[in-house]
Amino acid sequence: MPLRYWDRKTRLLEMSVEVERKFLCNADTLKTLEEIGASVRQHQFHDQYYDSPKFDLTLRDAWLRKRKGCWELKCPTTEKTSGEQSKAAALCTRYKEITNLPEIQQRVTKIMKDNCEDTETSLSLEGEAWLSKMNLVCFAEFTTVRRSFVLEEEGVQIDLDQADFGYCVGEIEVLVPEGGDVQSALEKIERTAQKLGLSGDQRIEGKMNVYLKRYNPKHYEKLMSQHIL
Ligand SMILES: Cc1ncc(C[n+]2csc(CCOP(=O)(O)OP(=O)(O)OP(=O)(O)O)c2C)c(N)n1
Asked: Could you tell me one molecular function GO term of this UniProt entry (predicted)?
């Protein structure tokens, strides 16, 4: 019997790229999800995002966070696809999510080194000492209640997020193995968007956009002016 989505996801995540499209959801979205038979689960998590005081990571589009006691680093992928210029691609983001701590530390060190010559590697540090060694501090934290739906046959996950600072956003996500078929993922996302009746052609803001706009407008403006957000 093939493994179900949730059983595959943990394994896939280690070596995958997340292709995602955000959307604004309403009561109809929820109704449609129930009608198309998506399996559902609900959970809650608290995210803490870390960066240096000069924002070396986020200014390189690298997002370091702690969620449910685990470290995760989201960074842009360098892969290009033929569908790059399409409307479907323009509405989506693509990030590699790294969950292996030594690899996260290595990547963070490299980014810091690129920005500052005298940063040392700190790979063998115990516990969370690497954070202070690398001058990383928490710059954003919030709790999300997430309802996740899965369309098993497409391998698509749809999340409806409610953040505790008062922002609701949905996202359609497909995991693609590294070097895999991003074009097909974009098509799955487009098909799902149509099923959900999403017609907008504007990129929708993520939770971090709204959080920073409200709580750190100076950094938000900087990320906007550098086209990171
Ligand atoms: C629309 C959009 N979203 C995110 C970014 C960049 N970015 C900003 S913060 C950030 C990190 C948070 O990513 P996001 O997908 O928004 O959060 P979440 O849904 O909680 O993560 P998941 O559980 O899916 O892993 C990124 C990649 C961007 N430039 N544009």
From this structure: thiamine triphosphate phosphatase activity
Model confidence pLDDT, tens digit, residues 139-158 = 999 999 999 999 888 889 99
Residue 11 pLDDT > 70: no
Q: What does pTM read for this prediction?
A: 0.89
Strands (E), 24-61: 39-51
C-beta of 95 in contact with ligand 1 (< 6 A): yes
| Domains within the chain, CATH numbers bracketed | 5-225 (2.40.320.10)
Q: Does ligand 1 come within 6 angstroms of the Cβ of 171?
A: yes
Give the Å distance between the CA of 25 and the centre of ligand 1.
17
| Contact 51 CB / ligand 1 (< 6 Å) | no
Q: Which residues of 80-95 are buried (b: 16+ CB within 10 A; e: fewer)?
A: ebebeeeebbebbbbb
181: tokens are 């078929």
Ligand 1 atom with least separation from CA of 72: 25
Q: Could you write out the DSSP letters of every residue in 163-208?
A: ETTTEEEEEEEEEEETTS-HHHHHHHHHHHHHHTT----SPPP-HH
ipTM metric: 0.96
Residue among 47, 208, 226 to mutate when testing ligand 1 (max atoms within 8 A of CB): 208
